[in-house]
Amino acid sequence: MAGRPETEDHSTEPPIIERGERFLAEVPRHLRGPAIPALRKMGLSSAEACEAVRRHNQAMARAI
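^ thats the sequence. predicted structure below, dont judge the formating
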């Protein structure tokens, strides 16, 4: 079959964004400080940090 390669992992997001999202979920705000600078220190680009925050906020909204 032509087209997409067959893989088990269908995630298109880089693992670093997922790591950033997990960091936001696990580390309390009073310990990490502002989200974007904390994620930038972890090595995420500005765009990746914003995407991690967006995904974290979506997960928090679904939890309500």
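The chain has a mean pLDDT of 87.
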